[in-house]
Each structure stands twice: as structure tokens, then as C-alpha cells.
Amino acid sequence: MMRIPFRVVFEQRGETPRRLSLLVPLASVLAALFFGALFLLATGYSPIDTYTNMFRDGFASFNGITDTLALSTVLICTGISAAFAFQMNLYNIGGEGQLYLGLIGGAWAGIALGDHLPTLIMVPIVLLCGALAGAAWIFVPAFVRSRLGTSEIVSTLLLTYIGASLIKHVIYTPDSFFRNPNTSFPQGRRVADSASLDSFGSSRLYPTFFVALIIAGALYWIVKRTEFGYRINVISDSPRAAHYAGINARRTTIWVMLISGALSGLAGAMLIVGPYGKIEPSIITLGYGYAGIVVAALARNNLGLIIVSGILFSGLRVGGNNLQVTTDTPIHIGVMLQGAILLFALGGEAFRRYHIHVVRVQDATARKAAV
Amino acid sequence: MSSTSHEVARGPHHNSGAASTALSAHSIDKKFPGVLANDSVDFDVRAGEVHTLLGENGAGKSTLAAVLCGLYQPDAGYLMRNGKRINLSSPRAGLQHGIAMVHQHFRLVERFSVSENVILGSRDLPFKLNRRDINEKVASVAESYGLPIDPNATVGDLSVGQRQRVEIVKALYQGAEILLLDEPTAVLVPSEVEKLFENVHAMTAAGKSIVFISHKLGEVVEISDRVTVLRNGRVTGHVSGRGTTDTKELARLMVGRDIELNAQRATHATGHEILQIRNLSLSVENVAVLSDISFNVHAGEMVGIAGVAGNGQRELADTIAGLISPTSGSVSISGAMTTDCGPIQAREVGLAYVPEDRLGMGLVPSMTILDNLLLTRDRKVVVDRVSVRPEATRLIEQFEIKANGPDHLARKLSGGNAQKVLLARELSGGRSATKLLVVCSPTRGLDVGAIETVRRLLNDARRAGQAILLISEDLDEVLSLSDRVFVLYRGAVVLETPGESAQLSQVGAAMAGLANEGRS
Ligand SMILES: Nc1ncnc2c1ncn2[C@@H]1O[C@H](COP(=O)(O)OP(=O)(O)OP(=O)(O)O)[C@@H](O)[C@H]1O
Ligand SMILES: [Mg+2]
């Protein structure tokens, strides 16, 4: 039998050296860029040009940065949605579906209430309806999770598929309330003008960006400073201590999940009052809800970092997608680079948690024999 | 090495009089933010001896043990194994040099069998496990040190003492020559301690070395060949030779003053009934855990509950604290019915409760001392940490808690200091003025100085008119502090006796289930 003379050994660290906490994310991004460069070279593209273009189109041009912030508006919301649930070790994988429902809920309010109210009142109502719809979509998973312990991972994910069908249903069914009655081509019906915000100047950035920032700050504050946040911390760390202190874990679980669902729903409604103005069935191909999980993971579920990781990830995505427009690089290169950065960033965790080294197999056996 | 006669008589490995040094640590420094937990510590253990680390809570014993087994890397200093310098980057590296630690909190998988737990983490296992071979090997390792254990038993079904045995067998199976036992006896009942000591003798007779940590001075005197005393991270004393010292001297070495080692009862005129328990029964999955318990505790009175662990003490305490609903019967505190009302209601009428489990139940490990003080208090919608901070600082001082301040994380406290935080919170009143104090094993893991302090505080509390229910496996403590003692056996009160005139033999028999006279 052939034996490989070396073996990689993972040893769990008793304590993580502080410098690693800074070094590892940095090294991960560099490694990803290096890996991407190899890939670009192999397929005949110049890494330097590609990276410069990506950076320019994602961050360093007016359109680039405003598009990035516009996308981050949505991803920050879905990102906190995932990270907030994770504060209590709950995995809301179905932010995507809750976002669809937010789109439907927001569109419903924007159409049904008509053009009677001023924008200042109308927009918050639309956002609220979107958030409520998102919360409603997670209610059953939240309820069965808290009562019966049924895995929320499976239930929220399954509901996402139903949500996607629902989007198709409301757009493709003739005479649907949400369908534009004036065209034969299946399209969403526009919401009332009072339910639409104007973007800043010539950009595609909407004031909802600031709403997202405020919400991120508010949730951070809630977790750190309020009684509700205190409970979340106790329950996630030691359920028995929560029981001892008379903290109702079931109720808190339901609330945390409902809020998480509402945040994804809010992201959907922000698209209604912002760039979409109607239900766009193409939403089900964009994966903004899933991207929120990635944004949360990059921030290591730290609510304070979601804004940063949301903007970075959006820039990467905007820059990557623009490659195709500004150069002849296929979009898949951009997608591949996003994936590589993510993979390396998460893989870097292993270096923080484990001491990794390579041993010669002969050494190990020899030492064993000596003992 | 001391040349007392005790030394010579001790087994085959000492007939030369100078056994070789198996492991030594030289000028070890270990810093944590704000504390120097080990300050140029020198330490060594020889083949075939028991070397005890003694010291106050937070003196740095567990830290030194963690350095010795590779769990922590020292900031300065080095280790030598059999005269050769070694560098331990991890516990696994420690194991490769035959050094293993048995932690106070066991790290076993409850759903696995004994032998599965023992082989867990071993390298070089064949792809296909031969269970019979492994079971045989595990059993033979266990038996050769007098540690009989069924390799097929599920760990979840074992008692604490048996689990500890599994940890030791695991260490031996992995080839440990040096075992570090961090407060192994804190969780054991007296008969299990005796068993453990027999095992320790078997291991030292086979040439293994034991580093032992304990706060129980009687045990230390009994088992140690040498004792090293740590204080604030420094070595401050040595005692060599078994039987050359006594508990009083050790206590003085540890804290630098004379300590009252025996508990003193504070006799106090008792007042009206605070806790009333009527016909309390509890069944869990159709097994009776508590059966028909009735008693009262009066203001200013201390009632002790004695019994071997697992005879319903924990359930009794949890039921009084409103954490468990009894199957039948009632609990009332200070005249208010609290059965089925939940812990918050019980606290509102004056309950304070120190549970047996500190980290994970009484304290939240990842939270700060300050936040842990808030756990059983009334928190506003926006948690007001600012106004609690001065009190936190005061309690840290009053209870002599070794910490960097109110923001020290609970999990980064030494074992005894964590216990002090819990006691500080519960003894200082919470939602309302404390009327009833339920305390489980309050002095477990505390050093002699802290034990003295805690007993004084308990006595102060009863002088202030609080009713105290003391639940402890430490029989001496229960008998000497309590006015009345109840013995719990299989969930029933089998003996009631006044604390003062209690006969040890009678109580002991009752604890073993041999009481034939019922309650008076
Ligand atoms: N991971 C950590 N981070 C920060 N401080 C720590 C950490 N571990 C221990 N300490 C501090 O180091 C000191 C020594 O702790 P150690 O656990 O070694 O004490 P100990 O002698 O075992 O005490 P005890 O008898 O109470 O268990 C204490 O002041 C403790 O607060
Ligand atoms: Mg310790």
C-alpha cells in the first residue's frame, strides 16, 4: 500500500493569538486575489487589468460606488436578517423567500392604497407592509421551532421555493391584482406614485440606504443594550441559565425569528419604493436573500460589521458584473472571483481556530514507538 | 527530597531514594490581560510521586496545569521532560510526551460508550474498528490500575465518579505517564474519593506521576508526597514528605494567616415560618424523584439537607426555586404560594438561589461579571449598566474576587472566583429583600480563606433573619452549620435530626439508605 509521507494535522487552539484575528481576514483576501489571478492568467485575461476594472467599477467611480451602495441597501438588510437570527444560533436560510414576500406585501400596499396619501406617510406604510409580510412568511417555521424544535433550516428553505412560485403566480396569472392590466406581456403593476422615492441625482441610489444604516445601528443597539438583547445573549450562551433566571426562551425564539423575517421582508419592500416600483419576477434569479447569509458570514455574524461586509460584498458584485459590460470578460469570471474570496475568507477561519502544521508520517510513528 | 521515614516506605520506585524528575517547568510566566497568572514558577514532578499544587482561588494552579499539558503556551520559561527540553504547542503534543490532564469539567460524549470515548481522538485507528479488540484493550488498561469499568456502558448513564474514571482510563490508554488532576475530588462523594485515591496509589506504584490540585486540605495531607504552594502566581512555599505537615500549617502557608477551618454554628432565635413545603412529590418519566416531602424553615434558621448526590437534592432545590413544577404538593415562601409560579415570582417574594452548577446555570460564561449580576435582577427595558457598576465594584472587593473589574468575563475567572461571583449576587439581594436563601454546595471549589468568608456571610444572613436551606454533600459542613438536618435518600426524607447533637454514624447510615426509624 502506498503511503503519503506527510500528513496535515489540525490541532484546536486553546486560545487564538490576537494578531491572527487581524491577519487572517487580510491574508484570506490576498490569497483569493492570488488564486483568482492564476485563474485569469490561465484563461488568458490580465489579472491586473481585470482587478483594476473591478475596483473602478465597484468603488472608484461615481456610478460604481452609487450602484454599490444601492445594492448594499438590500444586502445589509438581508445580512442583518441572517446575523440577527444567528445571535440566538438560529439559521434563517429562508431570507430569500421572506424577501419575495416583502416585495408582494409592499406592492400590495403601494397599489391598494392608491395615490391618496403623501409620500412621507405612504413609503413607511409600504415598508411596514413588506416587513410584516416577511415576518408572516417565517411565522410557521418560528412557531414549530420554538414549540417542537423542528429545524428552522429546512422549513425556512422550503418556504423560499413556495415564495418563488408565489411571485410567478402573481405575475403570470391573468387578471392578477399585481399584474399590469394594460400590457399583454406579463409585468408587475406599478405602485402609486406616492409610494415611490426618487433616487439621488443621476444615480440609482435611493434614500432607503440610510434606512438600512439606521436599522443596522438600531439592531446592534438592541442586542447590546436592551433587555431583549440581554435575553438573546443569555439564551444563546446557556439555555439552562435562561431557565434559571426565568427567561422565556420560546417566546424570545419566536420574536427573534419574526424580526429576522421582517428584516428580509423590508429588503423586498425597499426594492418596491426604490428601483423596482413593482414586482419584478426576475428577483427570483438574483439571490439577494442568500447573499445576505454570505454577508453575515463575512462579518462573522457581528452586527456591527454587517454594514462594512455588505458594502464590500456589493462592490465586489457590482464590479464583477460590470466586467462584462466594460470589458469582454465573461460574467462568470466575476462570479468566480466572488466565490473565491468568500471561500478563502471562510476557510481562513480554520487558521484562527486551529494550529495547522504538516508532520512527516515516519516521525509520528517513530515517536509513538519511543513512548 | 526530604528524608523523612515516610518517604522510604512508599513503594518500589522509591527504594533508591531519588526517583528521576519526569517533568519540570522552569521560570514559567503566563500573562492574561491584567494579571500575571504565573510569575516565574518553577515546578517539577518525579516518577512515581504525587505532587500537589495548593493555593487560593485565582492563585494560578489551573493555569500552571494548562501550561504543563500544552493547553496554554507560556510567555516565558520552558518545560523539560526526562531532562530534555520540550515545546508543547497543543494538548496533543503534550500527550505525545505522555502528559495528560483530567479537567474538572469532563469532556466526554454522553451518547457514546465508554470505549468509544476512550478511543475518541486517537490517531492511527484502523479504518474498520474491531469493537471486541478495543473493548478488551480498554478493559485491560482499566483493570491494571484498579479502575474497573464496563467498556460498553453509555457514558450518559454513568455517575460523576465513574465518568471521571473514564477520563483517567482515557488518559492512560493514550499512554499518559504524567496525569494532571485539576480538583478531581470536588465533584466526588467521600466513598468515590477513597476509590480515586486507591487508583492514584496504583498509578504511582506503576511509576506514573500525578499532579494533584485540591482545596481540601485533609486530602492534600493524605495523598501528597510533596506540596507546592502558589500565591498570586508565585511559588511561596514547599512541603516535602508525606505526613510531615497538617492542615493548619497548609492553611497558614496558603493565606498567610491562621484560618478557622471548622464551621461555626450561629445560634439564633428563630422566628416565623418562611419556607413551607407540603407533601411535595415529583416524578420524572414515571420515576419518583421526590416523594412526599414536608418541612418548614423559619426566619433566622439554617436547615441542612444531607445526602449522597443524586438522591433528589437538585430537584428539591429547583422545585423550591420555581424551576420545576412538582407532580403534587405545594411550596410557599413567606406566606405566598409559589408552586408553579416560576422563578421570577419566587424571587419577588424573597427567594435567592445558588444552584449547584455555576457556569452554565448560575452564571452565563460569555457574559461579564456585571451582566451576570443582572441575571436574577429586575432589568429595565434598556439595561442600566451604569448604575449597577459601583455595586459590582463593591461586591468584587467585598468578596475578594480576583478579576480585572466588572467587565471580566465569567468564563475567564478561576473556578473559585466564579463561585464567589454567584454567591455575591445571590447574597446581596435582588428583586426584593432576601427572605429565603437556598444554597447548594456553596463552598465547593473555594479555598480555605474563601470558605471561612462564605460561612461567615451565611451566618450573618441568618442573624439578619433570613431563612437558609443549605444543601450540600459536604457532611461536615451541613452538620456543623445547620440547626436541623434532613437526610434525603431516594427522594424521601429518611432522617431528621438536630445539627448540634447529630450522630455521624446515624446520619451516615441514613445517607446509605439504612435508616429504619422514620422521621420524628
Ligand atoms: N483565559 C483567561 N483569561 C484571562 N484571565 C484568566 C484566564 N484564565 C485564568 N485567568 C486569571 O488568571 C488567574 C489564575 O487563574 P487560575 O484559573 O489559574 O486560578 P486557580 O489557582 O486554578 O484558582 P481556583 O482555585 O479558583 O480554580 C485568575 O486571576 C484568573 O482570573
Ligand atoms: Mg482552577
UniProtKB/TrEMBL annotation, chain A:
Record flagged with keyword Ion transport: no
GO molecular function: transmembrane transporter activity
Principal localisation: membrane
Keyword Ligase (UniProt): no
One Pfam family here: BPD_transp_2
A single cellular component GO annotation: plasma membrane
TM region positions: 20-48, 68-86, 98-114, 120-140, 152-172, 205-223, 254-273, 279-298, 303-319, 331-351
Membrane topology note: Multi-pass membrane protein
Compartment(s) where it occurs, according to its Swiss-Prot or TrEMBL record: Cell membrane
Superkingdom classification of source: Bacteria
Keywords: Cell membrane, Membrane, Transmembrane, Transmembrane helix
Stored InterPro entries: ABC_transp_permease
Protein name according to UniProt: ABC transporter permease
Originating organism: Acidimicrobiia bacterium BACL6 MAG-120924-bin43
From TrEMBL, chain B:
Alphabetical UniProt keywords: ATP-binding, Nucleotide-binding
CDD domains reported for this sequence: ABC_Carb_Monos_I, ABC_Carb_Monos_II
Entry-linked SMART domains: AAA
PROSITE patterns: ABC_TRANSPORTER_1, ABC_TRANSPORTER_2
Listed Pfam families: ABC_tran
Molecular function via GO: ATP binding; ATP hydrolysis activity
Domain ABC transporter: 23-257, 275-515
Region (Disordered) residue spans: 1-22
Name of the protein described by the UniProt record: ABC transporter domain-containing protein
Organism, as annotated: Acidimicrobiia bacterium BACL6 MAG-120924-bin43
Organism placement in taxonomy: Bacteria, Bacillati, Actinomycetota, Acidimicrobiia, acIV cluster
